[in-house]
Amino acid sequence: MRFLLDPEQRAFADSLNAMLTAADTPSVVREWSRGEHARGRALWRRVADAGVFALAVPEAYEGLGPRPVELAVAFVELGRHAVPGPLVETVAAAALLTEPGLAKRLLPTLASGEALATAAPAGAYALDGDVATTRLSWDGDGLRLAPGPDGPVRASLDPARRLTRLLPGGELLTAEPPLAHALSWARLATAAQALGVGLALLDRTVAYVKQRTQFGVAVGSFQAVKHQLADAKLALEFARPLVFGAALTMTESDVAAAKVTACEAAYKAARTALQLHGAIGYTAEYDLSLWLTKARALHGAWGDPGECRAAVLDGLSGGGRRS
After folding, report:
1. Banded pLDDT at 320 (limits 50, 70, 90)
2. What Å distances lie between residue 126 and 85, 157, 276, CA to CA?
3. Which residues, 6+ apart, have CB-to-CB distance to 320 below 8 Å?
4. Which of 121, 68, 124 is nearest to 94 (CA)?
5. CB 151, CB 164: distance < 8 Å
6. Residue 1: pLDDT band with limits 50, 70, 90
7. Closest CA to 92 of 171, 184, 193
8. Which of 232, 238, 304, 239 is nearest to 273 (CA)?
């Protein structure tokens, strides 16, 4: 089965790609990793103005959704340009806030981009808790609005993914948050983001091997190099229909399959990019590193490969549910 985007979806992707290309996202990412959020927040508002976060918010609460297919289209482009910030976490927060009173209170600002959200289990590290304005955590009592970050920012493998613990306690929002529903939306967004990261890594590597020469010819003409690039391309193209197929069905098992496949394809593209770039690929100053580290970080975000494969097996045995 082939999953093809319709003309409106392709135009949406093209418009996001053009906007993010003009935004010089590598410099924005580097500033964000240093804790300088001004340009990142401005870019966040432009992404929100394009309707990206509204796709996860129902129309009743000033959103455009829920529209998981269009959300996946958007997150491929966000990954392709390595946009920083708690992107997936904002989607997860929107999926957690389904109770009408909470939705009316908190979702409009998420849809508009006025608020940034992060979400994590109580006691775990949350992404960008220092800059998020809506911090959600959950424990045995239910979903809480955490009062703020606890302690200093902690660095991660991806410098743009700044981690903080959330303070315990806070306002109890609901005793029964839809955690499985939110996890599926978070995994879908992560899978689409990883697919975009992998595509960017492949494009940059193809361009590089066309320019780099050995023995008087471009290294991209070597058969071994072509084979490595072809393997990375196949992995990404295999992941693409799984991502959009999961967006159509939104079953836990399909989303888990998309997440593990897309993240492993991006990780394969990262390894290939690093090897074919040679020593320059290891340097933090080279922009390629922004995608290399993100591919590795997304690999384990919102469920490692073992957890996702277990969800797929559960779905095959009849336990999968629609989110």
Report:
1. low
2. 12, 14, 34
3. 251, 252, 253, 254, 311, 314
4. 68
5. yes
6. low
7. 184
8. 232
